[in-house]
């Protein structure tokens, strides 16, 4: 089949996928599986190979993603239920002072966003945001907008979040390098989120009536809040649960970089630095430390961990279906045709990676789908370009930042943020959409700078 025909099928498959999800509101998992079948048939893939290709795509992606998402969800759920999120934010405020509350919340949000999904993490921090805003006499958007912005930034580029982990599995990116790069860039982005949010908030935005009622009623049960605060785990415990797995992963990456292949120490560091082992350690510590602090028995601890799995199941299935779609695009020859066409344009691959991901994010709303689909489209170009593990990680992070921008009405996160902060759709587009786009472009600019330095 000609390159033009393959590219046409590829473009048509993406357009059909977006129509199914956006226009006809078909579940993303069903839509991606259906389109994967259609692409396989349209490109003339042997009928005996279709099912095995779909299974390979699902298994190859979920081999790592399912375990990481499940463990990350359990860890985040235990931190949430124990009251550790509130404890963390309170401590940051004490350290930085009451006049720096927005900065304290943004810093706490960045740390909390590492193991906790964006939607869950933001909802965890909403009561804290409300409490500080009531004390300061300002609307929730003043403190909540930068918090949401940096949490979403971490969600799209820092493992163990499913989009970046699934994308890394497709392009064989090093999770350790991706973690280091993502965190390093998110730190200055936290400050930028604060600055841009302040500029966007230079004029006041009226609260939606329902949010205004919730905000006015917030804080009436002060005794209950105080009781929860006294029993919450210390900030040192929560920081340890978040930083220990990151330290293990970074140790593994450092060993793989500095030590020769076959070295026994490198093998040991590679084992303890694997994301699966690192998160297992964190979950085990959380079961012991948080369970002891809260007086949870074994049944209570198990129930809390199990409650994290139903929401994670949908994420895992959608991520796996994205892997199936990506595998079909590659096996059918569409990925090769696209990589050859992109090479002929002589445009930098890192720029194309960002633009494609940004376009997909704007079109269908899901950052996870945008990351995984873009990685599938560019997997051959990345594999055949002779790039180092560090360069592959930078390309993957660039794709992640592309999925950060242009969050609008087809994104569930848009509705969560605007609802809790009391913004109308128009005000949400003027604030949240602008903020995510600025952070995405800034994150990509820093990634591109690193790309130039290591080239």
Automatic annotation (TrEMBL):
Transmembrane intervals: 50-71, 104-130, 175-200, 238-259, 271-291, 312-338, 350-378, 390-409, 429-454
One Gene Ontology term, aspect cellular component: plasma membrane
Pfam families cross-referenced by the UniProt entry: GntP_permease
Highest taxon listed in the record's lineage: Bacteria
This protein's UniProt keywords: Membrane, Transmembrane, Transmembrane helix
Residue ranges of coiled coil: none
InterPro entries: Glcn_transporter (IPR003474)
Gene Ontology MF terms in the entry: gluconate transmembrane transporter activity
NCBIfam families assigned to the protein according to its UniProt record, in alphabetical order: gntP (TIGR00791), PRK09821.1 (NF007332)
Protein name: GntP family transporter
Organism of provenance: Acidovorax kalamii
